[in-house]
Specification:
alpha+beta; about 90 residues; single chain; two-stranded parallel sheet
């Protein structure tokens, strides 16, 4: 994961670092249309959030028996001081 912050960088790992590692080891497509993300239970919740957050990386996302509302985790919560303002 790039850069050091006080919070986990799970989304960066799953959306950028992991696809780069897979692409370096296997012959895979380069475009979002070639990639998808899927998960079960809590992983399904994450997959359903990850796909729409990164349409440039994943053309499809699926959840198998996903949670639709995860418990609040103070380490990944966005606050007004960490939110990106546009």
């Amino acid at each position: 994961m790039r850069g050091r912050t006080r919070s986990p960088q799970a989304e960066t790992f799953l959306a950028r670092d992991r696809p780069e590692a897979i692409s370096g080891a296997y012959r895979v497509g380069e475009h979002a249309r070639d990639w998808g993300v899927i998960g079960n239970s809590t992983g399904g919740y994450c997959a359903l959030k990850l796909g729409p957050h990164h349409p440039d990386r994943f053309a499809a996302s699926a959840g198998l028996s996903p949670y639709y509302k995860a418990a609040e985790d103070v380490t990944t919560r966005v606050t007004s001081s960490t939110a990106t303002r546009t």
